Amino acid sequence: MSLDAQLAAYLTRRWQAPVEIEGLSRIPGGASRETYRFDALVGDTRRPLILRRDPAGSLIDTDRRTEFEAYRTAHGRLPVPEPIALEIDGAELDRPFFLMQRIDGGIVTSPFAAQPFGAHAPAIGIAFFHALGTLAALNPAGTPLGSLLPAPAPDQCWRVALDHWAAAILRDEAHPQPIVRAAIRRLYRHPPPPAQAVRILHGDYRSGNLMHDGAGQILAILDWELAHLGDPLEDLGWAFDPLWNHFDPGTVCGMIPQAQAIALWEAASGLRVDPAALRWWQLFNAVKGQAIWTGAAREYRGQGCIDPILGISAWYTARRHDEILADQLQRFGDAA
Amino acid sequence: MTPTLPEILRGNFMSLAIPATPDMAGQFMTARVSVIALLNLLGAQEAERGTAGAVRENRMISDLLGSAPAYAVVVPEPRDAPSPAAIDAHNAALRRALIALHEAVEQRGDDATEARILALYAAMAEGRKLILPPLPG
């Protein structure tokens, strides 16, 4: 049965009314799920939807329930699409999936684009880091995601995160990586102060995971598949990684200067950025990046090298992160 | 290093040779072809400079390992006739020795040797660099 027929069967059962599917088309929406856009016609109503379905292999092995509950948590608080349905066992679609509202007319930029926001970069930067601060201000207790995930103790956030990604590198590494291994040892030897608060983290908060309208407005913050609870400085450190600066070292995420982003985040979150803690989380995020690219290399080769997104992740971004790690190791050492 | 250039180029061929399903037409396939083109562009750089870069890295690591007699490091020698795969295998052996040396240096608190190792890391990363041209936004 074709995917649109499967979708029609599923939604007809779920909504207890005949559903037709129009315009089903796969889109490049993240590397860890197959993403499709389509319209569901039920009676006189046309519902624009997005399907996120587990692939056979992916860049990151993540739990789709976590992503779905992250959307439920953020919806109404931040610009995110409304989640519609989650099917862990795959239902009529064979593999686990979830559905969410589709937001049309927006632009999602490539991390390799120069000046992706043009003259609107400052406006988008202000909204982007205000939104991240708003997320960091939210107490996870009682939220859908906070009810699902374990909360680490404030003084264990760093260890939980580092243990996870260090283990991923040791598991997936095919060629010895002395630079990232040195960074991992450095991070264990010099832990950061305890988190000021344990909060919900997006986990992949960067310029390529937002949709904007081309006129300075953020329409949606996407790709919550790495959401978890932890030290909110982790998200800030990831957004500040030079990999995402769009060839403009004077800005973060190709948007605004880092100092301005910190001020916006502090104002929205009510938290403070300790420079020493931020330095730790920035080096940590370079390790996390390298862990993701190392996993991408394993997956790419395991699939016969047919997914070019995994290929570019395993190759260009891995080497770029070695540069970033080597630079940060030297600067971290100077300041330690 | 993984993936290797032959793996990338064979993969690019295969990803275009495998028939696409109808729902992949349009935006998805356009993005896919763009990334394949990008991989080919970087592949040209690697074909031009990759082997020389790997040989240079091997020499730099060998030099550093050889200049740390206090740590009784055994410097791995190449085992096969020069080829990209043999150079890569030698590189893996050298990198393993470098990791062991760095761990020993950290345990002793030998800041001078550690500074040389960190400088070597920067040179290694620079030597493997792939240059991505800024793409239109």
From TrEMBL, chain A:
UniProt-listed InterPro entries: ACAD10_11_N, AGP_Transferase, Aminoglycoside_PTrfase, Kinase-like_dom_sf
Protein name: Phosphotransferase family protein
CDD domains assigned to the protein according to its UniProt record, in alphabetical order: ACAD10_11_N-like (cd05154)
Domain Aminoglycoside phosphotransferase: residue ranges: 24-256
From TrEMBL, chain B:
Organism domain of life: Bacteria
Name this protein carries in UniProt: Uncharacterized protein
Source organism per UniProt: Sphingomonas hylomeconis
